[in-house]
Amino acid sequence: MKPDDCFTLFRLFSFSALFTAAVLTSSPAIANPHEYLLDNGLRLIVKQDHRSPVVVTQIWYKAGSIDEVNGVTGVAHVLEHMMFKGTKKVPGGEFSKRIAAAGGRENAFTSYDYTAYYQQLHKDHLPMAMELEADRMRNLILTEEEFAKEIKVVMEERRLRTDDQARSLLYEKMMAVAYQSHPYKNPIIGWMSDLENMTVADAREWYDRWYAPNNAILVIVGDVDANEVFRLAQKNYGTIAKHPLLPISARKPQTEPPQTGTKRIIVKAPAELPYLMMGYHTPTIKDVMADWEPYALEILEGVLDGHASARLNKSLVRESQIANSANAGYSAMARGSSMFFLSAVPRAGKTVAELEQALRKEIEKIVKDGVTEEELARVKAQVVAGHVYQRDSIFSQAMQLGRLESTGLSYRDIDVILEKLKMVTAAQIRDVAKRYFNDDSLTVAILDPQPLEQKAPAKAPSGLRH
Questions:
Q1: How far apart are CA 71 and CA 355, in angstroms?
Q2: Catalytic residues
């Protein structure tokens, strides 16, 4: 999953990413992070990596679509777009031009749980990048004229990436059914009716409420000196006043009520093939030390998917040949609850009903017979080995730090998470499969393919950043 997708599916911190984070931290070539707290509440995390003269700077705001209210869904993502419209000091478009002129790259992304902005460039240009980012934290100019242009870009983005993409549309409608009250039921990009009626005042209210130093985490990774970065942060961010707002831990709980029976939907959309998604409500990590179920679910995801010998690919695709493809997905890290997804495309001549039964049988095998110790060891080893190369990416290092901190956990938990994953037993995998893979917590979504219209491919709007 690309980190610069402005709205992504639910797997924002997958099984492989957990292990990647642990591998990164344990690498002898990478120093432990340095943490600072400015007087205005901004947290700074610096990770020194001197292997190349490059730096990544990311600012993470602890506000995403989970914090939106009815009527203004999508406003977090809309503001992300507006953040590039300029300040009095840096006119619209100038931000990106300066980064590009320095040979760097920059973008942003919005998720359910947070919004973040980043630049990657030569270390000599860190002062410039930090000055630009700090300027727009509080000095953004929001005009009706620019908003009117950008909201059209966002609406077209929605059409291109959701309305005209059958599987994305299926996922969106599935989430709206699977969640009864939790904000995860709303799409990150927003409902079209909300976008059509959104105003610049909505964006300004969101900006004024959440874009503050005491609601942000500044992550810097690369060929830098931690103390010098702290001095730069004080210079550029230190004069910005804090806002009176509640930290994530003190915000009102948004607890999804227990599901009491299977939910089913059929979505008709132009597509070549049917598609099946099954989602089970599951927990996420809230207490890194005490929890064990999320870790078992993470390992279960690896048993089912993620490599050539995984069960779904082996059984449904290669052996029984009932599916063209079959996948599993789960996120252990989120501010809200999670879902464990099973998805598949039936092979020609096979039905979605047959495919659903085949997926159910794979889960039943785990509940009945469990997994072997050999299989368990192979899954753990393959995931670690498959992602060890990512320790060379300073961008990946920054992403791991920011994601952990923005979902209510800590970068200090990385080693604990690795150890907890290593400690998962076959019995625990069997236990979570038995407890959470039941019909009362299941939502089934089926794509009923309709004839494809022959039309010219849509042209992306000029302002689309992602």
A1: 38
A2: 80
